[in-house]
Structure formats: C-alpha cells, structure tokens
Amino acid sequence: MQLLGIHHVAIICSNYPRSKHFYSEILKLTIINEHYRAQRQSYKLDLALPDGSQLELFSFNDAPSRPSYPEAQGLRHLAFKVGCINTAKHYLESHNVIVENIREDEITGKKFTFFADPDGLPLELYAL
After folding, report:
1. What is the domain extent for residue 107?
2. How far apart are the first and last CA of the chain?
3. 102 closest CA partner among 126, 128, 123, 76
4. pTM of the predicted model, to two decimals?
C-alpha cells in the first residue's frame, strides 16, 4: 500500500453560517457541494483547495468544544501552503483575523505563522 496524499480534512463547527463564510469567503476555498441532512439536523459543506485536496465542514447540534489549551492529543493543527506569507498574513488581518507573528522553521528555514478559525481551530500558513 502507498498513500498518495491527503484527500480531505473534516472539521466540525459550532456556527455553520459563520464558518462557511470564513472558509469560503475569507480563505476563498471553492464550494463543491453543500447538503443539509435533515435526519441528522446537520450541514455538510465540501470545499476545494487549488491542489485538489478538500475540506469537509460539518455542523452537529451539541458537539463538544475542542480542547486546545493546553494542547490535547489528536490533530494539532491544519497547515496551508502559501506563496507569500507576508501577503497572506496582511490579507487575513485586513479581514479582522488575528495572526501571530511570522516565525522561521528552525529545521527547514521556511516561514510560517498561525491563526484560528471561528471555533479556535489552530490553522497554519506555511511558505513554499
């Protein structure tokens, strides 16, 4: 068996309209499909990134909050590749997204920074 890449990452949000706006309008991910599943009282939104990978955004009633601080076991963060990290940081800040200072990866020498989605999920920008 050989893994070929990441197909998608699934995210459960607390406020579907707010998160849909964040991922589709601010982060500019392309909406592929949007479904309301009445039996589950849940939305499922499929979003595409330019490289073909996808995000699935779910809403579930009464989903527990994600423990983040101190960091819990499990998925630590989701990182997005960007061409110019300074431009990406400025763009997010112009949309009132709080972005940490840009740092340099001590191993690769690449620039990176962190921000959060509307539910506090840690997201990273990583320069190519």
Report:
1. 76-128
2. 28
3. 126
4. 0.90
